[in-house]
Amino acid sequence: MKRISKTILNVFIAVIVLWSWLTMVFRGGGSFSARGIWSLKYFTVLSNLLAAAAAVCWLFFRERHFSAVLKFSACLAVMITFLVTATFLGAIFGYAFLYAGPNFWFHLAVPLLCLFDELFLGEQKILKKELPYSVLPLFIYGCFYLGNIILNGREGNDWYAFTTWGLPVGFAIFLFLLLLNYGMGMLISRLSKR
């Protein structure tokens, strides 16, 4: 029964993320979205696409440990999206816009579904030595994000407003998010019912 529930959930995650992203690409999707390929500049979109890819990977390679590690990393990436939206961006830009259209799925539903999957349907234990892998998606994105601001300036490139109070504060926010990501990984790994 657990395997059937996990299969249904992963199919749903893959389909809803793809549908939401294509809706954004062709129609737009409200705040923190862009039409076309430019939607890929947002960590929200990239983390959700990673969650969809991890769900598909699990469907085909469920017995392989790398698929469990990929799903775990994707879960933490979308949970960063969830937490940044719920605590930082929502307070600045307003929650109504951040949970409208495809962003309802990207900012709220998919992260919570991925968390449920990890906590209650996970099948393979994530080892302590594998926790650093879960930080890689955010680390890579943050390096490109801050690197782009350093090279091209803040205007038009700081869509998350992390450097509003200066570049050092932007770096501090980035470091805090990396530590939060790692800490959540430790917590979710301990709490999961594997």
Task: Describe the fold and architecture.
It is a single chain. It contains 7 helices and no strands. The protein is globular, with a radius of gyration of 16 Å. The two termini are 15 Å apart. The protein is mostly helical.
- Helix vs. strand class: mainly alpha
Give the C-alpha Rg: 16 Å
| Average pLDDT over all residues | 92
How many strands, which pairing sense, and closed or not: the largest β-sheet?
Answer: none
Number of helices: 7
| Low-confidence region ranges | none
Oligomer: single chain
The succession of helices and strands, N to C, reads HHHHHHH
Helix content: over 70%
The span between the termini is 15 Å
Describe the global form: globular
The count of DSSP E runs of length 2 or more, i.e. the number of strands, is 0
Percentage of residues in strands: under 5%
List the main descriptive attributes of the protein structure presented here:
globular; 7 helices; 194 residues
In brief, what are we looking at here?
By secondary structure, the chain is mainly α. It contains seven helices and no strands.
Give the topology.
Layout: H1 2-27, H2 43-61, H3 65-93, H4 95-98, H5 102-121, H6 136-152, H7 167-191
